[in-house]
Amino acid sequence: MAVVLQAPAAFELKSAALTLVAVMLKTTDLARLSQALDERFADAPGLFDNDPVAIDLSHVRDADEPIDFVVLMHLLRGHKMLPVAVKSGNAQQMEDALAAGLSEAHGSGPGALPVRQHAPIDAGAEPPAKAVAAAAPATEPEPEPMPEPPRTALVIDKPLRSGQRVYAKGADLIVLAVVSFGAEVIADGNIHVYAPLRGRALAGALGDTRARIFTTCMEPQLLSIAGIYRTTEHELPAAVLGKPAQVRLAGEKLVVEPLQSD
To answer: How far apart are the first and last CA of the chain?
Structure first.
């Protein structure tokens, strides 16, 4: 009997949750943007290492001036960013972006940058007859809010080297070894690093403003909570640099403070 040997598959397809940093444009003046990028990254040339980014147009979608996406992509690449997607632009902006080779960001993950929105509600429209008939009396008490489900945690017990990235989807992230410069830790919840934190830490990736970052040795490359970030081209205060510290959000400002041992 002949035996037929199958060659191993050359590839396979799997789902992947990818995280992206969003570059939120606040001007369509690319000369002004170029100057701002130069100033912003003058003291932190190694902040990006050809990392993929998405371009967020939500603040410029009503602008009259067109955006030259070829030039914009060139500017971002000059600062070691790799633009791969675009979101929240108007119809013409999205058409121009797609023609320049960008994709439209979809999905619900922290880097997927969802673009779908609920349809607006017309406050003056009459409700359907069935809806009126089924409406609850005004005196009926509202149901008690359901408690939030307990958050799980992803535990990493090996060092994370430059270029490695870990994402704790729907969970806290606990790292028991060093997070090296160039490595990235991301969590929808809190981040705990019981070792030196030298790379990038992004907590509350889906917008949880209550998330925090904790480490026994604060030496980060970048800190972010709910999309508000801070780089450390300007050295952290001596009270927290290289020491046990936490990061929390106070309004729109990141606060880095020592961990008390009382």
So the answer is: 77
State the residue for tokens 């992004």. Answer: 202
Q: Which pLDDT tens digit goes with each residue over 110-152?
A: 444 333 233 332 333 344 343 333 444 445 555 555 555 556 8
Burial 195-224 (b: 16+ CB within 10 A, else e): ebbbbbbbbbbeebeebbbbbebbbbbbbb
Neighbours of 117 (CB within 10 A): 7
pLDDT of 206 reads 83
Domain ranges of the chain: 21-104, 152-258
Distance in angstroms (rounded) separating the CA atoms of residues 100 and 102: 6
Q: 76 with 100: CB under 8 angstroms?
A: no
Spatial contact of 120 and 138, defined as CB atoms under 8 Å apart = no
CATH, domain range 152-258: 2.160.20.70
Half-sphere exposure of 120 (CA within 13 A, CB side): 3
What pTM value is reported for the model? 0.53
Rounded-to-integer distance, Cα 201 and Cα 172, Å: 12
CA atoms of 240 and 216, how far apart (whole Å)? 10
DSSP type of residue 205: T
Token match 């960001």: residue?
105
What fold, for 21-104?
Alpha-Beta Plaits (3.30.70)
DSSP H stretches of helix in the chain: 30-40, 69-77, 91-99, 129-133
Which residues of the chain register pLDDT less than 70?
A: 1-8, 11-20, 43-47, 106-151, 232-234, 261-262
